[in-house]
Design goal:
The chain is of the alpha+beta class and 255 residues long. The chain has helices at 6-9, 28-42, 50-63, 106-111, 133-137, 139-144, 185-193, 203-208, 239-254; strands spanning 13-21, 24-25, 69-77, 81-82, 86-87, 93-100, 113-119, 149-154, 157-161, 165-170, 173-177, 196-199, 201-202, 211-216, 220-227, 230-231.
Length: 255
């Protein structure tokens, strides 16, 4: 990618984050479909097929000796900028990166983690663009607060985390936001494991939730026991969250 690339000059790009288990991209079909949807929304040209991309991921994983698990990032931009604002549809920039997997600390899954809220609605939230200025800018604050993620809220409504989806459990019912979010692939797996109520979620529901957890390709299912300065439920990992974590781990191990 050169300095004249529209992905650099204008941030005109999309990407996809995939977990590779033993070299095999997890839920490749679901990820690729979301990648296609994002490319269509930005009128970007994907230069290879899903099958070719999966083959490259396997080869890169083996070449770089990433082992049992790796993080895969697929990046697509419009290519070289024309007059600083246009691009050639036929000549996109396309990258596949296979990186070392850096898991969250084990104790966060055992004891639960913290979220901090921030009033923000992502640009084009339904698509995975590279527009993460707010998320990047908030990382120092997140670390100071000893939080695992930033939770975006807007006008009293719960949306999503900077790089994760959020669920709450109330009276045995699993609930998650329905709109103005990126619908994650791990989120989709949760829908396959348990009945989920997908709807508008209000901020005050967080304080009354029995359990809270987040999902992402690079974090799996992570329990949340604190948001800002208040405790969730009993302040420990709840039974429904624990069961979903176990079920998801089995799916990953069998893939």
């Amino acid at each position: 990618m050169g300095v004249e690339d529209i992905g650099i000059l204008r941030g005109y790009a999309i990407y996809e984050g995939i977990a590779a288990i033993k070299g095999e991209p997890f839920r490749m079909g679901d990820h690729w479909q979301r990648f296609l949807d994002s490319a269509h929304a930005l009128n970007l040209n994907i230069p290879i097929t899903e099958e070719k991309a999966a083959k490259i991921i396997r080869e890169l994983n083996e070449k770089n000796q990433r082992g049992e698990r790796a993080n895969v990032r697929i990046i697509l931009t419009g290519g070289r900028a024309i007059n600083g604002i246009e691009y050639e549809f036929e000549n996109p920039t396309f990258y596949i990166l296979v990186e070392k997997f850096e898991p969250l600390p084990k104790e966060l899954y055992e004891r639960g983690a913290k979220l901090v809220t921030y009033n923000h609605l992502r640009f084009m939230p339904e698509h995975k663009t590279t527009h993460y200025i707010t998320a990047v800018n908030l990382q120092k604050y997140r670390k100071e607060e000893e939080a695992v993620e930033i939770l975006y809220v807007r006008d009293g409504e719960v949306l999503e985390c900077a790089t994760s989806n959020i669920f709450i459990v109330k009276d045995g019912k699993v609930i998650t936001p329905a709109e103005n979010i990126l619908k994650g692939i791990t989120r989709k797996v949760v829908f396959e494991l348990v009945d989920v109520e997908e709807r508008v979620m209000l901020e005050n529901e967080l304080k009354n939730a029995d359990e809270v957890f987040i999902t992402s390709s690079f974090k799996d299912i992570a329990p949340i026991v604190k948001i800002d300065d208040y405790k969730i439920g009993k302040g420990k990992v709840g039974p429904i969250t624990a069961d979903l974590m176990l079920q998801f781990a089995k799916i990953l191990n069998s893939s």
